[in-house]
Design goal:
Blueprint lengths: L1 H13 L3 H6 L3 E6 L5 H12 L4 E5 L4 E6 L1 H14 L4 E31 L2 E30 L4 E6 L5 H11 L8 E14 L5 E14 L2 E6 L5 E6 L4 E2 L7 H7 L1 E3 L5 E14 L6
Antiparallel strand pairs: 1-3, 2-3, 4-5, 4-13, 6-7, 7-8, 8-9, 8-10, 11-13, 12-13
Helix pairs in contact: 3-4
Length: 285
């Protein structure tokens, strides 16, 4: 009996505050991210646990792996519930309005005269003449498509598989430091990155439009975004706007927004966009 009492007393003195120590012990848990934004979650989690815990975001598996105290885990769970909100989708009606001049040239051959039949043979005279004609006509083409993008995400619009003013655009990119000198494109197309963000609960949408070249360099995929001349516009849900009238760098866009038809004729392209806010379904985590 005496020995037991002494051992109990020894335990009390050697490990004081045992319950508190166990409460602060790190526990490792894995949380699915659901709809939570990875960058926002990483920032908030780092600020929340400080140097006391450890965490990593598995981006490919969309998971948060964290070693922290029970109290920190409780806060992390509350944070994920707050961030796990379904994104609001934006359906963008897109119109491509192409204008240009179509040139046609041709050669016609005609003749007149007479042929006389009689005697041992035939005789006659035919005078041939040629006529070259040129025709020029104004043309326009209006096509439409829909682009569905989650708020805060990015969608792509293809401007053309061929880039008529590629040399000029590449020189511009080298001058601004966007493209490294010596890059030789094997294939290249022009694209417009569209990133809509619903402001609050709407009805306004902020849209960022960024020109992009995408293709192959040395048989490897190569992409260049001209972020320094992105166009930002805030419009109301259902309101239309034309990119051509809002772009700041007129020289660049006048060469970037150009299409080529099968005959090789170049067409200026203006793009009209109309965003429409839509709600996404919440599937839960």
């Amino acid at each position: 009996m005496i020995i037991r009492i002494m051992l109990c007393c020894l335990a009390v003195f050697v490990v004081p505050g045992l319950d508190s120590l166990y409460a602060d012990e790190r526990i490792t848990k894995v949380y699915p991210l659901g709809f939570a934004d990875e960058e926002a979650l990483e920032e908030y989690t780092a600020a929340m646990i400080g140097d006391e815990g450890r965490f990593v975001i598995d981006r490919s598996g969309r998971r948060l792996i964290i070693a922290a105290s029970p109290e920190q885990h409780r806060k992390i769970a509350e944070l994920l519930d707050a961030l796990d909100q379904p994104p609001r989708n934006v359906l963008i009606d897109v119109r491509f309005i192409e204008t240009g001049r179509e040139h046609q040239s041709g050669l016609e051959i005609g003749g007149d005269g007479e042929i006389v039949l009689g005697g041992p043979g035939t005789a006659g005279t035919i005078v041939l003449g040629t006529m070259v004609h040129h025709r020029t006509a104004d043309m326009s083409l209006d096509t439409s498509m829909n682009l569905l993008v989650s708020s805060g995400r990015e969608g792509l619009l293809q401007i053309g598989e061929r880039v008529p003013y590629l040399d000029w655009i590449v020189d511009y990119g080298i001058f601004t430091g966007t493209i490294a000198s010596g890059v030789e494109w094997q294939q290249v197309g022009a694209y417009l990155a569209v990133e809509p963000t619903v402001i609050g609960n709407g009805p306004f949408v902020e849209i960022v439009l960024t020109p992009r070249l995408s293709g192959l360099v040395n048989d490897s995929p190569y992409h260049v975004s001209f972020s320094e001349i992105s166009t930002e516009v805030t419009v109301r849900d259902g309101e239309s706007f034309n990119l051509g009238g809002m772009a700041a760098e007129k020289d660049f866009y006048s060469r970037f927004l150009v299409g080529v038809d099968r005959s090789g004729s170049r067409r200026s392209i203006d793009i009209q966009l109309t965003p429409r806010i839509q709600d996404a379904q919440h599937h839960g985590r």
